[in-house]
Specification:
The protein contains 12 helices and 18 strands. The strands form 3 sheets. Strands 8-7-6-5-4-3-2-9 form an 8-stranded parallel beta sheet. Strands 10-13-16-15-14-17 form a 6-stranded antiparallel barrel. A two-stranded antiparallel sheet has the order 11-12. The protein folds into 2 domains: 11-215, TIM Barrel, CATH 3.20.20.10; 232-353, Lyase, Ornithine Decarboxylase, Chain A, domain 1, CATH 2.40.37.10. The protein is elongated and about 75 Å long. Helix 7 links the parallel strand 6 (118-124) and strand 7 (151-158). With 354 residues, it is of the alpha/beta class. The structure holds pyridoxal-5'-phosphate (PLP). Pyridoxal-5'-phosphate is lined by residues 33, 35, 79, 159, 191-193, 207-210, 217.
Length: 354
């Protein structure tokens, strides 16, 4: 039999989550964020399932090119903009939209081969201090861009640092609105968390990512509570069973020691598949649909499942690592990370089924 690990991508769930976003932001265009290989779900597969979106946001210009060559006609935004003059040639050839977040990118505009048909998203730094111009800097930049012979439409974009946190967006939203109200240009502010929680941030374009994949952007609210459906399910099988006696130890570093007799399943899934090595002993998983837990340290190709309370489980039993029936957030929490990172880290060696 082939190694039993697989990732199942539920295309219907992607589609459903997009419609859910539409219902939440009914008057706004949707820029589906499909960077990082569609958050690990596969770029072209995700674009196909989300083809009702008004736009796609990616990081890598070659992803944008691929989407055009596959026939997608939507707006395609480069979230970090162009890096080189060669990029600007591709931007023109493939009709892409550039973010401008730094002074140095202005010089690239001069290498743009077209005239009056370049659409720009100007990034405003509202206090997150990652990319973009503060409002005073942005005023000068906007004037320059408006005068630039290549530029057609300018959209103002900002990104929130705390839309998913208790602190919320009040301050940065006010800062952005104060600035943007002086200009009659489209605006884009909201990631998934802001889309779900702050209708006042919807503007002209929302930019959902994580929610489209059916995971929650919030620590304290699950995807299911929000009404989202997980798109990725990572599963495998038990390929061996070990019967431990009290005092026996498990795996690298002997991180787990049995204090009574136990049955252990060896699961064909490890960190080389994208399962987090930092997942603690006790991270939830499902064996034949029943809740159980990992034990000991995750290794490159395998991990340990506690079968003590599952007398029927054994070699061949199915194991769900995350997804349908097991929120990715629960696994991420036990590994000190977020569902985003786990999805993106799904390894290329894992076969994907749809
Ligand atoms: C990744 C990203 C998003 C999507 O964020 P989610 O939390 O996944 O919804 C939106 N905007 C920008 C600028 C991003 O980089």
């Amino acid at each position: 039999m082939p190694r039993p690990i697989q990732a199942h991508i539920n295309l219907g769930a992607l589609e459903q989550n997009l419609w859910f976003a539409r219902r939440k932001a009914p008057c706004t265009r949707i820029m589906a964020v499909i960077k990082a290989n569609g958050y690990g779900h596969g770029l072209s597969r995700v674009a196909e399932a989300l083809s009702a979106a008004d736009g796609f946001a990616v990081l890598d210009i070659l992803d944008a090119v691929q989407l055009r060559e596959l026939g997608f006609r939507q707006t395609i935004l480069l979230l970090e903009g162009a890096f080189t003059a060669e990029d600007m040639a591709l931007v023109a050839q493939y009709n892409l939209v550039c973010t401008i977040h730094s002074e140095w990118q202005l010089a690239l505009l001069d290498s743009y081969p077209g005239r009056e048909n370049l659409d720009i998203w100007l990034k405003i730094n509202n206090g997150m201090n990652r990319l973009g111009f503060t409002p005073p800097q942005a005023t000068a930049m906007l004037e320059q861009l408006r005068r630039h012979p290549a530029v057609r439409e300018i959209t103002l974009m900002t990104h929130f640092a705390n839309a998913d946190e208790a602190r919320g967006i009040a301050e940065p939203l006010a800062l952005f609105n104060d600035f943007a109200s002086a200009f009659h240009v489209p605006r884009s502010l909201a990631n998934s968390a802001a889309l779900l929680r702050y209708p006042q941030s919807h503007g002209d374009w929302v930019r959902p990512g994580i929610m489209l994949y059916g995971a929650s952007p919030f620590a304290e609210t699950s995807a299911q509570q929000l009404g989202l459906k997980p798109a990725m399910t990572l599963s495998s099988r038990i390929i061996a069973v070990q019967n431990l006696r009290a005092g026996d130890e498990l795996g690298y570093g002997a991180l787990f020691r049995a204090d009574h007799d136990m049955k252990i399943g060896i699961v064909a899934c490890g960190y080389a598949d994208g399962y987090p090595r930092h997942a603690l002993s006790g991270t939830p998983l499902l064996v034949d649909g029943q809740p159980s837990r990992t034990l000991g340290r995750v290794s490159m190709d395998m991990l340990y499942a506690d079968l003590s309370r599952l007398p029927g489980a054994g070699v061949g039993s199915s194991v769900t690592l995350w997804g349908e029936g097991l929120p990715i957030e629960a696994v991420a929490g036990a590994a000190g990370t977020v569902g985003y990172e786990l999805m993106c880290a799904l390894a290329a060696r894992v076969p994907v089924l749809t």
